[in-house]
Specification:
By secondary structure, the chain is mostly helical. The protein has a single domain, classed as Up-down Bundle (Four Helix Bundle (Hemerythrin (Met), subunit A)). Helices cover 57% and strands 5% of the residues. The protein contains six helices and two strands, in the order H-H-H-H-H-E-E-H. Helix 2 packs antiparallel against helix 6. The longest helix is centred in the C-terminal third of the chain and has 25 residues. It is globular. The termini are far apart. The model has no long low-confidence stretch (mean pLDDT 96).
């Protein structure tokens, strides 16, 4: 079974039924991190590590982007969605105006929208194919894309919690 080398997440071990609740709990977890000490909110501990703000902004955008990819997969046969361009977003200051208050609301909204979409789909819809470029280019299912969104939420929540614990 395919697993994340960093956190051990196994995409195929997650069922469609558990994704919505875990997405919502992940958003709640980010809310707890964002409600903590704001001193290190925007601080990158080193050039290779994002700040809490960047992890939260990225995770919000991942949920919105992957939700749209799922919709594309419902409309088209085996589509190849555009990249998210995470570095472009960071390098061009797209996240510069994100505040902890805004992010709390937007993470909840993004998780809720994605969760409702997953809840609305049946097994036939979730088994539709979509080309996905990561971690290696291959055709996946829409269920895998939903599971990937959950992986991003839980993986980056752990990143943000580690940074918050550093103080």
């Amino acid at each position: 079974m395919e697993a994340c080398e960093v956190c051990g997440y196994e995409w195929d071990a997650v069922t469609a039924a558990e994704i919505p609740g875990r997405l919502r709990r992940g958003a709640d977890g980010f809310g707890a991190v964002l409600a903590g000490d704001p001193a290190n909110f925007a601080v990158r501990p080193d050039p290779n590590t994002w700040s809490i703000a960047l992890y939260c902004s990225h995770t919000r955008d991942v949920m919105l982007n992957l939700r749209d990819r799922i919709v594309c997969g419902l409309a088209e046969d085996n589509p190849t969605p555009k990249a998210m361009f995470s570095d472009v977003r960071i390098d061009n200051g797209v996240y510069a105006a994100d505040t902890s208050e805004r992010l709390q609301v937007e993470l909840d909204v993004a998780a809720g929208l994605l969760a409702r979409l997953v809840e609305a789909l049946d097994d036939t819809q979730l088994s539709r194919p979509i080309f996905y470029p990561w971690p290696r280019p291959e055709t996946r299912t829409l269920l895998w894309v939903a599971s990937q969104a959950l992986h991003e939420v839980e993986h980056h929540l752990a990143d943000a919690e580690r940074l918050a614990a550093r103080g």
